[in-house]
Design brief:
The protein is an alpha+beta fold and about 130 residues long. It is about 30% helix and about 35% strand. It has one domain: Nuclear Transport Factor 2, Chain: A. The chain has 4 helices and 4 strands; from the N terminus they run ααααββββ.
Length: about 130
């Protein structure tokens, strides 16, 4: 059995694919963050845009650049380091994570404390915070 790209022990079909098909299935900020990592892994620009807060939505050109970059790297793993709030009854939450990848220059790491909030009844990524 191949586990989901997000690091959970479930298959993609039983994990992030459910959220990719219906974003309201992400009941926590962490679930949304994991689904976004998997969307980067799959270079799914439509989902990355859907899961982004409207007030910080990238332009079509920026999405195209993000997808191009996501396709150019080999994603290795996601580590969730810390979460704060972001549960089913919360309106905001943070998820600190580390995503490891390889590109033409070698190994790269994205480490971010991400802010999430509810928008139109579902979780969305807002921005990285300090």
């Amino acid at each position: 059995m191949t586990t989901c790209h997000c690091g959970n022990d479930k298959t993609y079909t039983d994990c992030c694919e459910i959220i990719h098909k219906d974003i309201t299935k992400a009941s926590t900020a962490e679930m949304l963050m994991r689904s976004r990592y998997t969307a980067f892994h799959k270079a799914d620009g439509d989902y990355l845009l859907l899961s982004q807060a409207k007030k910080h939505a990238p332009s079509p050109t920026e999405i195209k650049d993000i997808v191009s970059w996501a396709k150019s790297v080999t994603w290795v793993k996601l580590e969730v380091l810390e979460t704060s709030n972001g549960l089913a009854d919360d309106t905001t939450g943070t998820v600190k994570f580390k995503a490891t990848y390889f590109d033409a220059d070698g190994m790269g790491i994205i480490e971010e404390n991400s802010l999430f909030e509810r928008e139109n009844g579902h979780w969305v990524y807002v921005t990285g915070i300090e």
